[in-house]
């Protein structure tokens, strides 16, 4: 660096010259201090760079390992898919067998259930008959006592009548007993015949199994014999060849014996030589051990020298690192000085006429001093005015009511009206201060700014902040214009959000505080700033989207946001171009970067032209001809708006219709299967009820005497023949059959109940699936003999009307899901799932209101047809426009609509 020579203008006195030199010394000392501070900051950044470089290498190694693991996982996935395909093919090949086995299993299960139910029914009847038997025994005992009392006291006329009745009853019981005996004998004969038939079938089955085993053994013996015969035939066919082979092998073995004897003699001679060599090897081994010890000593010496060389290498590495760090600092200093030289050259080129006259420079300095003094005076005066304005505001608050300053009062609305202009001004101030904090360089960005310093990164960070703040300015401007036309109810609802909005403003204040402390740089995270913009955009879309606002100012702010975003993209694109090595201007990446730059330049020109075409009039004067032209233009462009949204909605509607059709087909199949199952179960239930009625009728026909004789006969038979009592065809068989039938009946009833519940749930799912095709619109009026206006005094109808109005207000939020591109993909998926859940809840509320309206109509107008409440909006078959790209017809139509020439 060459020394800086100071030239003193001629004609200065000594005092002026000293003041001039003091000013220069002070200026140069300040510059020196700033350069020292920058060098310290750059030193920490270089350390961070080396650390990031090491981390990058570790991440690259981790990336290669993850790629290998990914290949292994893909290979395993292919194998799993192959196995799944084979299992699926096997399942398809054996599907018919599986279906037939499932059908047989179902038939067997149904037979089993029917038998269990029948057994349960018989068991219940048997229990009832036992109870009846006990009652009859008690009656019999009573009758015996009465007869005994009548015989002791003499036969009276009443006893003779009772005796005749008992005789008649005895005759009837004898007849019933005879019939029951015949029936029992027939049943016993049938049971014995069935047992004999089962025994015969069992014996036949055992004989068939034995015959099958004998046939299997015979087949195995035949196979063994065939195998032995085949071996004998093969042995007989190859006997002659075997003899010749054995003779040849014998000759070969004799030759091998002679050869082995000669080898044995040679090996004995070699053994003697080996003994001699072993003795010589022991002598050589002793000599080599001595040499190895000497080599170990040399290895230890070399290891010590290696350690010394490693220490020296580490010292050299630290020296090289320090040298590199120093070189980096010097490069940054050189870069800063070059940028400063360019700024001075630009200033000098703008003030060539004043360079030759140093007195003019002094006068300019005096003007700057006067301007600085004037600004200081203005700040002091403004501070005094602000202080007394605050006092005046405090005095005015004293005359206001107490509830004015309470939470949720009018004071929140006043603060809200001041909040958005203040927040917009702070956003603009932050953008301006960032541009002054990281000023540009004349001539634009150069390669040294990207490869040798962090200036390009700082400029890109500043451009990103400008883009985010322009978005915040656009949202605040829309809020500010909408608050002038908003209703009191909406303003009160927004005033409740004033504390949250104030907390969001404090985030912007935090960034201004970081900028004041010189801590806002490229390493500062902007996530909180993005959250502030997203918060205000969500509040705007939920609460103020339906109100009117200044569209010209909003479009102008939107164009400024677009141009700020294009400037940010251009800066990053320029950084990418400088990252490429010189000489790679013809590669694909360089061509892609140039294409992006051209597209960004065209987008910037289009944004500038669009911003110039925004009308400046606050109110449009609509003449009749202009109204007519606007109406015609609106009619012509009605089918050309929101093409992308319409295509998305059409695709979604088609998908929902297809899903609905599939669900309807599935529901029809389920309903048909359920109807068939219900018919079968009802038939079985009727059959069981009929059998139950028959058994009950049969039980009623039994008399007391017949039942008593039957029980005594069964007990006597059980006492005489114990074998029959233990037989499976006895009384226990009837009880088990009754228990089985009862169990089958209960299971059938449970199955019927479950099937009924399943049908109800499936019908509910079908109705919900039909409602999920989109957001259902609620009607403005009820079309029918009585409208909502005619029922203003009805409380139920008023509640329904309020609910309908609330659902109509919420309808716009659930029409289309608009993802936030600033959020990560997984958060966008969560937002989409939350949106669909809220939309389903909205549709459920709409269906609930529709049901309540149905009930109200039935109560208010019984017998009259219900009007059509929910009319799905007609979807126009508009022509689909292809994707918009540069040079396409859709792109030219958009340019013509805006009056821009491509």
UniProtKB/TrEMBL annotation:
Keywords: Coiled coil. Residues 18-354, 671-705, 738-810 form a coiled coil. This is Dynein associated protein domain-containing protein. Residues 332-607 form the Dynein associated protein domain. The keyword Cell cycle does not apply.
């Amino acid at each position: 660096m060459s020394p800086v020579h100071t030239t003193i203008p001629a004609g200065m006195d000594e005092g002026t010259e000293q003041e001039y030199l003091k000013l220069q010394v002070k200026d140069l000392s300040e510059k020196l201090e700033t350069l020292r501070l920058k060098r310290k900051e750059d030193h920490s950044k270089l350390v961070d760079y080396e650390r990031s470089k090491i981390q990058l290498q570790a991440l690259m190694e981790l990336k290669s390992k993850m790629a290998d693991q990914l290949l292994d996982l893909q290979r395993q996935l292919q194998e799993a898919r192959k196995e799944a395909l084979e299992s699926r093919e096997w399942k398809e090949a054996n599907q018919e067998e599986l279906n037939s086995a499932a059908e047989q299993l179902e038939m067997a299960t149904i037979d089993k259930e029917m038998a269990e139910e029948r057994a349960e029914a018989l068991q219940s009847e048997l229990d009832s008959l036992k109870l009846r038997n006990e009652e009859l025994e008690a009656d019999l005992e009573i009758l015996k006592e009465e007869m005994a009392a009548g015989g002791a006291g003499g036969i009276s006329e009443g006893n003779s009548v009772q005796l005749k009745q008992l005789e008649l009853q005895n005759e009837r019981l004898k007849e019933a007993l005879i019939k029951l005996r015949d029936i029992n004998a027939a049943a016993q004969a049938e049971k014995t015949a069935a047992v004999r038939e089962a025994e015969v079938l069992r014996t036949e089955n055992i004989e068939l199994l034995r015959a099958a085993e004998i046939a299997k053994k015979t087949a195995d013996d035949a196979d063994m014999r065939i195998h032995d015969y085949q071996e004998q035939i093969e042995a007989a066919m190859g006997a002659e060849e075997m003899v010749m082979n054995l003779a040849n092998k014998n000759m070969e073995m004799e030759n091998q014996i002679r050869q082995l004897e000669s080898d044995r003699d040679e090996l004995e001679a070699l053994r003697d030589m080996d003994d001699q060599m072993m003795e010589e090897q022991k002598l050589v081994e002793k000599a080599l051990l001595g040499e190895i010890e000497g080599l170990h000593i040399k290895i230890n010496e070399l290891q010590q020298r290696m350690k010394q060389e490693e220490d020296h290498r580490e010292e050299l590495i630290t020296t090289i690192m320090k040298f590199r760090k120093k070189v980096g600092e010097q490069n940054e200093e050189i870069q800063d000085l070059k940028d400063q030289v360019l700024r001075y050259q630009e200033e000098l080129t703008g003030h060539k006429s004043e360079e030759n006259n140093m007195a003019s420079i002094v006068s300019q300095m005096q003007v700057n001093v006067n301007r600085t003094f004037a600004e200081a005076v203005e700040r002091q005066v403004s501070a005094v005015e602000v202080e007394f304005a605050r006092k005046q505001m405090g005095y005015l608050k004293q005359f206001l009511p107490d509830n004015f300053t309470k939470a949720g009062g009018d004071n929140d609305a006043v603060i809200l009206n001041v909040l958005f202009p203040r927040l917009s001004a702070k956003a603009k101030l932050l953008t301006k201060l960032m541009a002054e904090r990281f000023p540009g360089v004349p001539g634009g960005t150069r390669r040294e700014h990207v490869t040798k310093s962090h200036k390009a990164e700082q400029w890109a960070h500043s451009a990103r902040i400008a883009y985010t703040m322009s978005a915040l300015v656009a949202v605040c401007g829309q809020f500010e214009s909408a608050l002038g036309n908003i209703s009191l109810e909406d303003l009160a609802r927004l005033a409740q959000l004033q504390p949250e909005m104030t907390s969001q403003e404090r985030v912007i204040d935090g960034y201004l505080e970081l900028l004041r402390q010189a801590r806002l740089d490229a390493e500062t995270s902007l996530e909180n700033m993005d959250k502030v913009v997203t918060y205000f955009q969500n509040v705007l879309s939920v609460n103020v989207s339906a109100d009117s606002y200044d569209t010209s100012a909003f479009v102008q702010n939107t164009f400024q946001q677009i141009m700020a975003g294009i400037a940010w993209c251009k800066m990053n694109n320029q950084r990418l171009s400088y990252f490429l090595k010189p000489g790679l201007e013809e590669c694909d990446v360089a061509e892609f970067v140039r294409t992006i730059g051209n597209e960004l330049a065209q987008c910037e020109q289009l944004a500038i032209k669009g911003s110039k075409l925004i009308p400046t009039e606050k109110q449009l004067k609509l003449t009749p001809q202009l109204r007519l032209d606007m109406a015609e233009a609106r009619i012509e462009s009605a089918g050309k708006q929101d093409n992308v949204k319409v295509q998305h909605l059409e695709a979604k509607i088609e998908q929902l219709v297809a899903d609905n059709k599939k669900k309807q087909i599935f529901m029809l199949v389920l309903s048909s299967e359920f109807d068939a199952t219900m018919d079968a179960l009802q038939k079985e239930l009727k059959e069981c009820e009929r059998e139950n009625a028959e058994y009950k009728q049969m039980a009623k026909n039994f008399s007391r005497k017949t039942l008593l004789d039957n029980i005594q006969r069964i007990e006597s038979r059980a006492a005489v023949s114990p074998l029959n009592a233990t037989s499976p065809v006895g009384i226990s068989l009837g009880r088990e059959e009754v228990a089985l039938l009862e169990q089958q009946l209960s299971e059938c009833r449970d199955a019927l109940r479950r099937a009924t519940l399943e049908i109800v749930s499936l019908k509910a799912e079908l109705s919900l699936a039909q409602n999920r095709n989109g957001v259902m619109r609620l009607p403005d009026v009820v079309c029918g003999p009585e409208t909502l206006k005619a029922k203003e005094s009805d409380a139920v109808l008023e509640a329904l009307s309020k609910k309908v109005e609330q659902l109509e207000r919420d309808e716009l939020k659930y029409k289309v899901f608009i993802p936030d591109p600033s959020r990560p993909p997984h958060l966008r998926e969560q937002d989409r799932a939350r949106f669909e859940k809220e939309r389903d809840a909205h549709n459920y509320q709409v269906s609930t209101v529709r049901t309540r309206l149905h009930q109200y109509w039935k109560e208010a107008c019984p017998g009259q047809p219900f009007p059509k409440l929910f009319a799905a909006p007609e979807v126009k078959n508009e022509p689909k426009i292809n994707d918009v790209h540069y040079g396409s017809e859709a792109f030219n139509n958009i340019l013509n609509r805006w009056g821009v020439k491509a």
